[in-house]
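quick one: 5'-O-[(L-methionyl)-sulphamoyl]adenosine bound model?
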Amino acid sequence: MPGKPSFYITTPIYYVNDIPHIGHAYTTLACDYLARFKRLDGFDVMFLTGTDEHGQKVEKSAEAAGMTPIELCDKVSQRFRELADFMNYSHDDFIRTTEERHKISCQALWTKLEENGHIYLDKYAGWYSVRDEAFYGEGELEEKDGEKVAPTGAPVEWVEEESYFFRLSAWEDRLLEFYENLPQTVLPNSRKNEVKSFVKGGLRDLSVSRTSFKWGIPVPGNDKHIMYVWIDALTNYMTAAGYPDMDSEKFQKFWPADIHMVGKDILRFHALYWPAFLMAADIDPAKRVFAHGWWTNEGQKISKSLGNVIDPFQIVEEFGLDQVRYFLMREVPFGNDGDFNRQAMINRINSDLANDLGNLAQRSLSMIFKNCDGVMPSPGKLTDTDKDILTAVDSLLPKVRDHIEVQAISKSLETIWKLVSDANGYFAGQEPWALKKTDPDRMATVLYTTAEIIRQIAILIQPIMPDSAAKLLDQLKIPADERGFDQLGGDHRLASGFEMDKPEGVFPRFVDQ
Ligand code: MSP
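yep, here:
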């Protein structure tokens, strides 16, 4: 039997100069949703997240906090791990760039680039932003309060030092070919065009080492030089896949990665530098970089200085984990910017979850419990109306899957909720409560049909709301090995005749205190 197809998805690795906030939680949540979806859809998934611990920014933050860099890294990296557990992420590996496996991997990639003639020693004279860990050309800079700043608003400093360079300028044509021939390597399309025009504007060779700080991975053979933090950081994706052991089963299976998920601010590093480094080392670049948008808070940019940073731990405490997961993925078309708005969150919880799905499940299952002696009834002869709604739920997966293929995350949820709404229409239209006395067989058929719809919806929503979906599936007594997407559709109907437990509501209404 052929093995399962593979799927490798990565989050950016998070800087340890900052504690986790909603933006970090968001990127990883999107990956968790996609990873869980693919696992249920029969893929062998590797889902990677972790922390980016080297570089000048971290070195400076540690100094400011009166700690050694590794003390700061240990502390903050642990906080990111806690966030990952708290948010119920299903990552398979958590990488730290201070690990030995990563040093070996970075040095191997460097050596390969050098052997292939893509790295040379020269002198760098130009602008650098520690906050962005990025080099900027004079023409890219802007003015703020009489000072030169990066286009991101970050301060820049003039740097002049000996540096190794990567011959990025030699990769313009190959990169443009790469975007052209493989049309979905960068999504959304608007982002791809952004990267293409940057490349068309001409590429300068990239400084890839520094001598003015120590906190990083030394250049092999010249440890006065520390690798540029982005070459170090990007390589994490290969380290976790087993690089430099390219013959290993893991590397063979998972490389090239299927998706690097990133925020729009770090697109250039992933869609331009990274494929160029890899092609220069004779390694295939990832199949896709997806750049998502940014969250604002009640219309304002989120920033430490404005004091409006949203703490994921706190909003989950207040609204509930699955509720927050659903809101973040449903509210904003994935790829666009979004606004975190309290009222919008409450509306989603009360309308989509409590009213639409919650009520449908609770009303129909309680009715079975009360009116059918707590035993799941068998359906009688199906009417055309029953058949229509069952056909609709049976054919949901391919539609949802099409959205997942292009990371249209909110659309995938919208598609499921359209069915929830139709199912509510079906239930209300059939009035099973009125059939108890007049036609109990018909009542049983309607209730069974509704329970079967709930079974399929609960299977489909496992990636977004794993705990709530599990509660629904437990109420329907679906065994653990019958919760995969292979159980969707008409070939695996809900069993009849089992005894139910008294159904408990899964999606409470949110009442503002
Ligand atoms: N360390 C680099 C990534 C290296 S990957 C090889 C980095 N780290 S970060 O911690 O600053 O940011 C990580 C991710 O969080 C980015 O994808 C960024 O877009 C995302 N977000 C940070 N703030 C955000 C919002 N306000 N909204 C949405 N996402 C945001 O960059």
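The first strand starts at residue 6 and ends at 10.
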